[in-house]
Each structure stands twice: as structure tokens, then as C-alpha cells.
Amino acid sequence: MSLEHSPDKQRRGGIGHNGGPPLASETPASYTLPQWLARHQLSRGHWYRLKAANNAPDTYGTGKAQRISPAADARWVKAQERKAKQSQSV
Hints:
This protein is mostly helical. Helix content is 47%, strand content 10%. It has a domain at 31-71. The chain has a 3-stranded antiparallel beta sheet with strand order 1-3-2. The termini are far apart. The model has no long low-confidence stretch (mean pLDDT 81).
């Protein structure tokens, strides 16, 4: 088995220093969709459901890739927190 396809390599995800979410000092200029999904532990299927319901963060394109800025990510997180609070108070 090559190093490229080893289970250890596949688990990392390549986001933070240890494969987990980036530390504050490691915050990237923007996230690729796979990075963002890993950061929030969401599946690609969940992403498509978010998009269909207009609940996904704002994205911008760079060629074929979709990217999510840290600001768009922060807005999305705040919106999810507001929705959670509203559903708890009802």
C-alpha cells in the first residue's frame, strides 16, 4: 500500500495541524467545500439539503471550486445558533 492511500493519510482531512479543525492561528483565507464540511462534521448530502433550503453559507467560485470565506462561515454559524435558540424557546 502506498503512503498516498494509507488509512492514516485518508483520515487526516488536511485542515488543521492534526487533521482537525484549524486552530485560530491556522484559519485559512477561505475553505474549500470539503474543508468546510469536515470543519462542521457535515456530509455532502447534508450540504445539498442546506443549499436546497437556502440555509447554506455564501460561497464564491474560483474556477470549478466553491469556496467559503471565514466571514461567511461565521455568519452561517451565528444563524444556526439563532435558529437553535428560537426552537428552544418555543
